Amino acid sequence: IIITVARQCVGQEGSESMKCDFERLPPSCHVISAAARCLQPMSEGGCSDFALFWYFHAGSAECRPFVYGGCGGTQNRFSSRRECQSLCEIDRKTRGNQSDHVGNIPSHI
Fold first, then answer.
1. Does the keyword Disulfide bond apply (predicted)?
2. What is d(CA 46, CA 20) in angstroms, rounded to the nearest whole number?
3. Which of 6, 58, 57, 11 is nearest to 33 (CA)?
4. Which of 28, 39, 61, 74 is paired with 83 by a 20 to 30 Å CA distance?
5. Rg, Å, the chain Cα set
6. Residue 51: closest CA among 74, 71, 31
7. For residues 24 and 43, what is the distance between their CA atoms, to the nearest angstrom?
8. From CA 85, how far away is CA 63, in angstroms rounded?
9. What confidence tens digit (pLDDT) does each residue in 38-63 have?
10. Which of the 8 DSSP states describes residue 58?
């Protein structure tokens, strides 16, 4: 299985206005590839603020729902199925007949 890799900047949770520059990252920000994020294990986290989220299940190469407790856990957690699919699932249009093809992987990784 080959996963599309995209870079993103992950900062403090709840700070949607935070923008990160790849050359000058603030101390609270770190870069993680989508592949690394998608391959982390699913974790329900702690707390009891139960909410529906999505994670990428590497064994089946698909996004699945789970109940997130609201704190802790891994970064393999997405607020929608579409977000999970856009970062983690293989582009099925380029797969062909059961063979895996590389799609949209930047040359600078």
1. yes
2. 28
3. 6
4. 28
5. 15
6. 71
7. 30
8. 6
9. 999 999 998 888 999 999 999 999 99
10. T
Distance CA 35, CA 108 (A): 14
Domains of the chain, earliest start first: 7-94 (4.10.410.10)
Of 1, 3, 2, 13, nearest in space to 84 by CA = 3
- 3-class secondary structure, 37: helix
Q: Is 87 exposed, middle or buried (0-12, 13-18, 19+ CB in 10 A)?
A: buried
Whole-number Å distance between alpha carbons of 100 and 29:
33
pLDDT at 89: 83
Q: Which of 20-24, 54-58, 62-66, 79-83 has the lowest mean pLDDT?
A: 20-24
75 in Cβ contact with 37 (< 8 Å): yes
Residue 79's nearest CA partner among 3, 30, 14 is 14
